[in-house]
Amino acid sequence: MPFKEVRILTKGRLIKFVLVLCLISAPGILIKSPSIAGSTPQEMQKISVDQLFIKSVEIQPEAVKQYLNIKVRTKFPMMNGRFYYGVIMNEANLPLHTYRFIAKDDGEPGELKRDFNFNIDLDELWDFNFYPENKKYKDLTVYYRIKLFDKKYKQDRILDGNFSIRRENGKFRRIPSIVLGPVIDCVTENSAVLSWEADGKESWDIDLWTINDKKRRAPLKPGEPITTPGRQNERFEVDLTNLKPGTKYFYRVRPADSESNPSISAYPLYHFKTIPQQAETREFEFAVIGDSQAGPPYLDVVSGVNLPVLKQLSLQTLAQEPAFVVHAGDMVDGCTDDIRDYYLQHEMYYRAVAPLAAYIPVYEIIGNHDSYQDWFAGEDKKTYHSASDPLFTEGLFSSMFVSPQNSNKKPSREIKSFNGKHLQMTAPEYSRTLYSFKYGNSYFIALNSSYLAASIEFNQNYPGYYLEEQMKWLERELKTANSTPGIRHIFVFSHHPNWPPTYYSDNKFYKDDKPVPLRSMSEKLFSLFRKYNITALVSGHHHLFAKYELEENNSRGEKVWQIITGSGGSANYPRASGTKYKIYDNLTREAHYLLFEVKGENVTCIVKNIAGIELLRVILR
Questions:
Q1: What is the bridge-based pairing of β-strands 545-549 and 536-539?
Q2: DSSP assignment string, 6-36
Q3: Mutual orientation of helices 307-320 and 339-357 as an angle, nearest 10°?
Q4: How far apart are CA 270 and CA 318, in angstroms?
Q5: For site-directed labelling of 578, which of 193, 231, 304, 507 has its Cα 20 to 30 A away?
Q6: Which of 225-229, 255-259, 420-424, 447-451 is predicted with the least confidence, judged by mean pLDDT?
Q7: Which helix (H) or strand (E) holds 480?
Q8: What's the per-residue H, E or C state across 97-128?
Q9: For 375, which DSSP code?
Q10: Between the CA of residue 196 and those of 84, 233, 235, 402, what are the distances in Å?
């Protein structure tokens, strides 16, 4: 189980809270697939992973000695236990934690065991962070990483987490901790959405102010937390309204009973900026990252995310101070039928982008790996089927990520049959997986190219294919963009590129040079793009950078581009110049992100690597 209960004992009193376990996937065994509405054939099996390597974690501070005792019980014997821990330094300019200390298990080196024991000195940690003039602060958040060695699969298993403590009268007790976020989203001229998840059922306050406020505003009171099947943390989403255009706002999320100016180590201070009025926004930048998922045997992979690469790309992007960031999909390895594991993996994605997403909006595009389904379920391991939860992928994704809710929410159609058996089930709402927004002189449209992605013999959908209702919605959005005063550029985002650039795509997307649904869909899609003058389709999925100029120009005589960025931490693809249908150039497999510069009539796409070095500059307009 990816979520486990953590217990703290203090003065004989048991306090329970939920700790998010951040796990690494490993090779596993064949197990029976769960039924879909009771209709999945018994013979269907899937390749699974033995994801749970820790069964329980107990944290027990002693009443007299100021030590914290952490007991870890694993699912199967492991060795060489290490507990790394540290805090956000109180004087930090950017709230990034560091693992300053290490505690080793009390067992013998190389000893295989299921129970590990770690002791950390809270006094030492406290004194290291709070120098004498800052002794007034009472609260501290401890970030930790548990690392164990899996001898069977010859790799480290990693668990990340955090908890908060308060020191009163020389003793420590646990207080609520933000375990995910805070994250700022959907920033407009006059509003924004703030969200976070916490490990306790406590009341929270939001401090929000500008540099010009003569006195501190009264804290905002968020409403009731959002409850969703499978999520065990308390999730909050708060609409920030009546904001001023082009204004920098500072904010902090803290427990209602904490002091109004707590230590940055416990509840950091963040900021964001609202969109300037359209007439004042002819020049801006936005960034795109794609495909940050990773699985074993990559180093430092935590719950399906290439944590070091994605975190570094996030920091490099933050340094550019773009107006917003788009993730082009496949945030995580995903493809799980365990709802708790689904949340777990995407929470780890949030941990990686947290230094960025607290300051700058990140818009997520749904990818095939961001799915809640049985992956490669068929006997040939080439088909896959939707999972049984009534929310499906779209509902779970929408409960995890905040994006504009302006799409047609009606389901596309009924799912009439499954393996010849009738199902009383309707297709899910697109919800937050299909949306649009404006910034300055540009219009941005996000598509769901993974909707009901399953094999055709199950009467569902190709990955990369858009059902009729989504195509109608797209054309309405394109018409709106073309008729909106001041809009000069249109960018469309979709995880799957409609003309794939790598060699294996000839067989995967086309068959024997004959028209198949995806090929005819691509031609129809680009016909719309030419008609409505889009600047570029930006996609991921293929683990490299590639650009392609459509042979036919749009109605204004301008080029229409397809840009692919899929190296945000994923395993790179073999290099190829393209397929037998389309030829790409400037391919690179190096980990990178894209920075788009919009300057009035002109648009430039800049490819930057993990060190921030410019690899390529492409003039789109």
A1: unpaired
A2: EEEEETTEEEEEEEE------EEEEEEPPPS
A3: 30
A4: 13
A5: 304
A6: 420-424
A7: helix 468-483
A8: ECCCEEEECCCCCCCCEEEEEEEEEHHHHHHH
A9: T
A10: 25, 10, 6, 11
pTM of the predicted model, to two decimals?
0.85
CA distances from 495 to 265, 500, 548 (A): 37, 11, 16
Q: Which residue type sits at 586?
A: N
Name the token pair of 122.
Answer: 């809270």
Within 8 A by CB and 6+ apart from 128, the residues are 100
Distances (CA, A) of 311 to 89, 350, 495, 500, 534: 18, 10, 21, 27, 31
Hey, CA dihedral for 373, 374, 376, 382, is it positive or negative?
negative
Q: Which two tokens stand for residue 277?
A: 């009025």
Contact 51, 26 (CB under 8 A): yes
Q: What is the DSSP letter of 189?
A: S
pLDDT digits (tens, 9 = 90+) for 556-599: 777 888 999 989 988 877 665 555 445 566 678 889 999 999 99
In angstroms, rounded to a whole number, what is the distance separating the alpha carbons of residues 178 and 161? 11
User: Residue 63 pairs with which residues in a beta bridge?
Assistant: none
CA distance 104 to 175: 26
CA–CA dist 299, 156 (Å, integer): 8
Q: Is 69 helix (H, G, I), strand (E, B) or coil?
A: strand
Q: How far does Cα 117 stand from its chain's mean position?
A: 32
Question: How many separate helices (H) and strands (E) can be counted in the chain?
Answer: 7, 36
Other CB atoms within a 10 A radius of the CB of residue 329 amount to 29
Contact 414, 450 (CB under 8 A): no
Helix, strand or coil for residue 532? coil
Q: How many Å apart are CA 48 and CA 52, to the nearest integer?
A: 12
Per-residue pLDDT, 125:
86
Please report, as a single letter, which amino acid is at residue 272. F
User: CA angle 237-495-375, nearest 5°?
Assistant: 90
Cα atoms in the Cβ-side hemisphere of radius 13 Å centred on 11 = 4
Give bridge partners of residue 116 from the DSSP assignment. 72
Token reading at 433: 């997986």
Q: In whole angstroms, what is the distance from residue 578 CA to residue 307 CA?
A: 30
Checking phi first, is residue 578 left (phi over 0); if not, alpha (psi -120 to 50) or beta?
A: left
**What residues contact residue 438 under an 8 Å CB cut-off, 6+ apart?**
278, 444, 484, 487
**Which pair of structure tokens corresponds to residue 351?**
């941990």
The Cα 563–Cα 34 span in angstroms is 38
User: What angle, rounded to 10 degrees, do the helices at 339-357 and 392-400 form?
Assistant: 40
Count of CB atoms situated within 10 Å of the CB of 170: 7
Which tokens hold the place of 373? 């389904």
Residues counted in the chain: 621
Written as six digits, the tokens of 39 are: 């209709």
pLDDT tens-digit map of 145-200: 999 988 887 778 888 888 888 887 778 888 888 989 999 999 999 999 999 999 87
Contacts of 15 by beta carbon, 8 Å cutoff, 6+ apart: 7, 8, 9, 174
Phi, psi (deg, nearest 5) at residue 508: -80, -40
